[in-house]
Structures are given as structure tokens and as C-alpha cells.
Amino acid sequence: MRLVMSVAKPPIEFIYTPRMPKKARRSFISKSLILKLAVVALVVMLAGLAWLDARVRSRFDSHQWQLPARVYARPVELYAGRVLSQRHVDQLLSLLRYREQSGAPTPGSYSRSGGTYLIHTRSFRDSDGGEPARQIRLRLADGRISALTRSDGARLPVARLEPMQIGSIHPGHSEDRILVRLADTPPMLHDMLLATEDRQFYEHHGLSFRGLARAMVANLRSGGLSQGGSTLTQQLVKNFWLTRDRTLSRKLLEMPMAVLLELHYEKPQIIETYLNEVYLGQDGSRAIHGMGLAAQFYFGRPLEELEPHHFALLVGMLKGPSLYDPRRRPERALARRNVVLQVSHEQGLLTDSEYQAYSARPLEVVPRGGAALYAFPAFVDLVRRQLARDYPPAVLSSEGLHIHATLDVLAQLAAEDALARVLEQRDPKAANKLNGAVVITAPDQGDVLAVVGDRVPRSTGFNRALDAVRPIGSLAKPAVLLTALEQPKRYSLATLVEDEPIEVPLAHGDVWAPQNFDKQSRGPIPLVQALAQSRNQAMAKLGMDVGLQPLILTLKRLGVQGNIPAYPSIILGSHPLSPFEVAVMYQPLATGGFRTPLRSITDVLDLAGEPLARYPVSADPVIDQGPAFLTQWAMIQVMRAGTGQSMLGVLPPDIVVAGKTGTSDGYRDAWFAGFSGNHLAVVWVGRDDNQPAGVAGSSAALPVWGALMAALPQRSLREDVPPGVEWVWMDADGQRRSAEGCDGALRYPMLTTSIPEAASDCGEDVSQGGIKGWFRRIFD
């Protein structure tokens, strides 16, 4: 029997869930999605705010202003006895933007009564300690400073005027600014800015809802974005991080960034940054940023010297620098300025009388390029070239370097005046025919004091002083004489050389046959006379005798660069050089044999005023003292009895100077290079198209040289002989010693190794002692 068991299955349970209505189900899904989207949006917004916050803080904390390198001239020294004309004082004060004001009450002002100036100088600091702001009284008489005193009448040994900024170095498309600190900003500018742009600046936290509401109403009325309602903080955000485009997206981004900026930084930091960042116009490719530079660009004066109507113009331009450009749209700029003055009056910043007075003032904007920043472009060009060897462009254009240059403003003014005046007298109806260039240096230091590249002062363009490479003509002759004098067994200044026709065969059957300026030959003449009278035939004969290769080596020692071809014509200056290269070549002749590299910079400082580089004076002996002195003495005779003697009535009679005229073939180029004890100047005059100019060195370049040297304080060259040189009376034959009073005898400085043993009868008898000499002196 089989037992069958059965297991009962549990009953199946059915759970009943009421079905959600379709409409309710849709509502639930929508709320869930909205919640998720809201969470995602919140996360995205928080991430965006965090990104914006990081961007704001990173840029603001690490921001380095793009500051070009600035070039400054040396301070102007004033002292009793200095050569100085009233014309140059007026030019100097104009370039420094001193304003004429009765009593000279504030720094940067002056008053004048006849030849007496009361000047309120500006303070400055430099490597020598600087100068405080003070009043000085300057009296001129007979082209000199006759007295220099303090305002109380006490004698003042020397006074210095602040270094003039003569240029800046920035890239082709860049921004420029002069940094100002809020503590140094005139309070009136600060107050006018807030009264006009953001009266609740110290109350809001980046946004002004009152301003936004006002802007919204204006935009609805105009049907577009005519107003922004921005606070100063928003404007800074726009300038610092965003674009100037008036779009809704930019506005929506600008608002949270303004709030974040206010959360992290104090109000003074924000407004100081605003004052330095704000855009205020364009100068060609250079963007003008900040109130500091705008003050110089529009008024030619430091920000602290401006008056309320100047501040009002700058504040008014914030609304649209192009729209209210005072040079292009003066009427519109004047109206906008007066609106700012009116607002300032309503806010109690100006009294009734002040408001009326300042509203009646003109704009007082200087012409474009009228500030000292554009004063001397030819010199700044030289500075650029020197800096390019030592610094990459990015450093020069962004790190705010301060470059102290060697420019002497008064020497520059003298050179500009002399060139322009002489060429105008010679060529009054052909303004574009004759042109010229000038380079002035201080021989002992190698400092370049002035560079003029055009007959029109301070014009930009082709820099003839550095780039007009022309044959130097007779400026090469001192090198020929020096080469001969370095062979003392053969030559002295008394040695005779034949001034007669000479023919030198050249390749291809040509012949080099130079002629004298007057087409005449004078026969045997002493070497010193051959140089002083610039006798071409005699110097050609001498040059061929000493040899072309020794002459080339001499030119190289003097500093001439590049290849010099061994053609006979180099004796008379066929080799082309620029005026600056001529100054380099003449430097050892002016220093007694030492080559001092010409420098346009003394030192470079960083933005904090710490020295980065110095350009010290160096001097290498390249010529022995004896031959150098003899060559210099021969060049002195050029000025006393040679082609430069027309300067005898121009320079003071007690000033000993040396020089040499030069004229190239066809009268294309007129040169003069000469020096005193403290100034070396090179002048070139010619035509840009290299056509015959019909001018000679003595008639065109020498008058320029004389005029500029007469306008500067000069120190005489010394004529006391160095060791190894003696004064000797020489016979007219140039081969025998003679004595004072002997027929035809002349006195020369001579190297002791070149003094001949033989003497003329007169010279031998007079020079000897004993009975024979005594009887000769008594009875003959």
C-alpha cells in the first residue's frame, strides 16, 4: 500500500495599487525634473561663480601693469656764469610745461620780469639725491646767468631742474600709463569722479540698484541699450576683464564679477586701480590709460598740478574718450566738461564763484605731440638702438623700466637752433633742399649730449645723424697726419711736403689726380700748414708716402667700423660715415688718444627704482700721448690760421678749440667736426637726394658748429706738452733746428725722437753757449 502525501500551496495574494491619474503623474514628473534641473542649475551657477571668483582674484592679485620703458634726460644744471640765452630759458620752461603765473606760487610755475625769472621748481629724486621743490631767482645778462639766488635773496651755488621725460618705448600696438597712488591723487579729482560717475560708491557692494533702475527706464524709452547704470566697480570690471561692447551678455557677466570684486577688496584699492586702468584716448597705436598719463597727454603737466576745470574734462571724457576728444571735438568736450563742473557745484565741491570762473576757462589742451614726451625723437632713436642690444622687446615694453639718458636739454636746444637758423639763412626759399644733422658729445665721458636728425627741430622720420652715410671729405686728413706723426724718424709737424699735382695709377687704366680747392699749388709747405689749409695735393702726397694700409689701421684704431677699401681716395675722405660715426672717430682725437665708447644711457632702473644695469665710463688708449697731442695741436691751427679761422669772432677769444672742415666731391656734403675741452660736435649739411648742394664745410657746416658751441659753456683745450714732447724752433726747411728771431723760424711741438740734431747757422749759434755764441749774439 503506497502512502501519498499532498502539500497544500499557499494562496496567491494580490496587492491592489490605485492607478495615478494621468494628469497627476505628469505633474509629478514635471516637479521632479524641475527640481533636478534646479539642482543642476544651482551647481552650474555655483561652479560659474567659483570660476568667476577665481578669475577675479587671480587677475587682480597678480596683475602687472603693462608699462613701457620711460626715457629721461639728465637734470638741467643752472649756475652763475653759465652761458644761457633768454630764448633757451623760455624753450626749456615750455618743454618742462612750466606755466607762467604771477609770483610762481606752486611747483611747475614761473614769472618773468625782463631778464629775471622767478621759478618754482618741482621736486625729484635721482641717484645724486634729488632736489626739493623751491623758488629760485635767475637773472640773465649778456647771454649768461649773472645771478642765481633763493627766493629770500641768498646766493645759490647751483640749482637743478627735474629730469625731462623725452620718450617711452612700447610695442607697436600697446597701452601706456603713468601709475598714480590714491594717496597722491588730488582730492578734487576723486570727489569729481564720484559725484559724476558713482555717488553711492562707498555705500553699495558693487551694484547700484537705483542706477540700474534709472538705466532700465532710459533703455525702455530709447528702445535699446543707451545707458548702463554701471558703478565704478562695474566699469573697472569692464575695463579690466571684459570688452567695451554694450551687450546684455556682457552686462550679465559684469554684475556678479563686480560683487565678487567688492567682497575681496577694499574700496581704496578698487578706486586706485580704476584711476590707473581707465581708458582715456588714443595716440596713434598707443592707448592712453589712467589719469596720470592723460594729464600729461592732454595738458602736458603732472596730475598734481592740474586745476578743477582740467579734472572736469578728464572725468567728462570717461563717458566717451573719442566722442569728447578735446582736440578733435573741442565744442563737445567743452560742453561735457561744464556739465561735470555743474554737477560738482551742485554737490558742493565748488563755490558759486569757483564754478563761474572755471566754467569760463578754455580747455587749455596742448597740441598733440606738444608734450616733452615727443621732444627729441632723434636722440630717443639712439637710445632704442642701444637698449635693443641689451634687453628683449617684451621687457622694454611692459616692465616699466626707468632709463636715465645722457641728453643735455640745453645742448640739444642749442644744436637745434643753430642748424635751423643757419640753413634758413642760406636756403630760405627751399625748405626741402638743404638738410643737416648734428651730434654733440662730452669727450671725456663719452656721453652723447645731443642728436639732431633734421633741420626742422623734433621732426620724426629719417634720422640723418645716425643713418645719413656720406663721404667725409677732408675730415679724414687728421688721420693721415696722425699716421705720419707716428713715424717720428720720418715726419714732424715741420716736415715739408710738396703741394703739387699728383697722379696715382689705378686699376683698369684710371688715374687718381686730386686738385686743391683753389686749383692752385703752393710747392713745399709744412705738414701743419697742409692740414690747416686743407691742401688736397699735399695731403694726398703724404698719404701715399705713409701708405694706405697704415692709414686704414689708424682709422680702425680711431673707431671706424666695417671694411675700408684700400683706394687712394680714402686719403681725402671717400669712405662714407654717418655723423654719429664721425663723432666716434673724432673722440680719441679730442681725448688725447683715449677711445671712450659713446653712450646714450647712464643706468637703467626697474619700476621700484632699483638699478638693473649701469653703463660706466671706460677709456682705452689707442694713440700714444705724443702723436695725439701733435695732431690735436695741428687741428688747433686749423681754427687759428686755417679753414676754421672764421670762428675767431664767434667764440670767446680765450677759448682754445680744434677742428677740421670737410667737403665731398661735387660739393655734395659739407662737414665740420671740432672740439673744446668739454664738447665735441659734428655737423653735416647736404641734400637728401645726394645731388650737388653747392656748399662747403667752411661755409655751411662751420657756422652751425660755431653757433651751437657759442651757446654752450666751453672749457679750453690745454696746450702744455705731455712727456716726450718739446717745443722746438725749426728752420723754414723743416729739417734743422733754429731759434727765436731767426729768419723764417717757426716754433713747433715735436716728439723728442723727431728733433733733428742739425741746426741752422742762426739756430746753432744762438742755441750754443760759450764765447762763439756770445760774440754772435752781441755783434751779429
TrEMBL record:
GO MF: penicillin binding; peptidoglycan glycosyltransferase activity; serine-type D-Ala-D-Ala carboxypeptidase activity
Bifunctional transglycosylase second domain span: 78-161
Compartments reported by the entry: Cell membrane
Reaction catalysis annotation: Preferential cleavage: (Ac)2-L-Lys-D-Ala-|-D-Ala. Also transpeptidation of peptidyl-alanyl moieties that are N-acyl substituents of D-alanine; [GlcNAc-(1->4)-Mur2Ac(oyl-L-Ala-gamma-D-Glu-L-Lys-D-Ala-D-Ala)](n)-di-trans,octa-cis-undecaprenyl diphosphate + beta-D-GlcNAc-(1->4)-Mur2Ac(oyl-L-Ala-gamma-D-Glu-L-Lys-D-Ala-D-Ala)-di-trans,octa-cis-undecaprenyl diphosphate = [GlcNAc-(1->4)-Mur2Ac(oyl-L-Ala-gamma-D-Glu-L-Lys-D-Ala-D-Ala)](n+1)-di-trans,octa-cis-undecaprenyl diphosphate + di-trans,octa-cis-undecaprenyl diphosphate + H(+)
Active site: 197 (proton donor), 474 (acyl-ester intermediate)
Transmembrane segments: 33-52
One Pfam family, short name: Transpeptidase
Biological processes, Gene Ontology terms: cell wall organization; peptidoglycan biosynthetic process; proteolysis; regulation of cell shape; response to antibiotic
Domain Penicillin-binding protein transpeptidase, chain residue ranges per copy: 436-708
Any one annotated GO CC term: outer membrane-bounded periplasmic space
Keywords, sorted A to Z: Antibiotic resistance, Carboxypeptidase, Cell membrane, Cell shape, Cell wall biogenesis/degradation, Glycosyltransferase, Hydrolase, Membrane, Multifunctional enzyme, Peptidoglycan synthesis, Protease, Transferase, Transmembrane, Transmembrane helix
Associated pathway: Cell wall biogenesis; peptidoglycan biosynthesis
Keyword Membrane: yes
Annotated ranges, domain Glycosyl transferase family: 172-342
Stated role: Cell wall formation. Synthesis of cross-linked peptidoglycan from the lipid intermediates. The enzyme has a penicillin-insensitive transglycosylase N-terminal domain (formation of linear glycan strands) and a penicillin-sensitive transpeptidase C-terminal domain (cross-linking of the peptide subunits).
NCBIfam families given in the database record: PBP_1b
Family listed: In the C-terminal section; belongs to the transpeptidase family. In the N-terminal section; belongs to the glycosyltransferase 51 family.
Record-given protein name: Penicillin-binding protein 1B
Organism: Isoalcanivorax pacificus W11-5
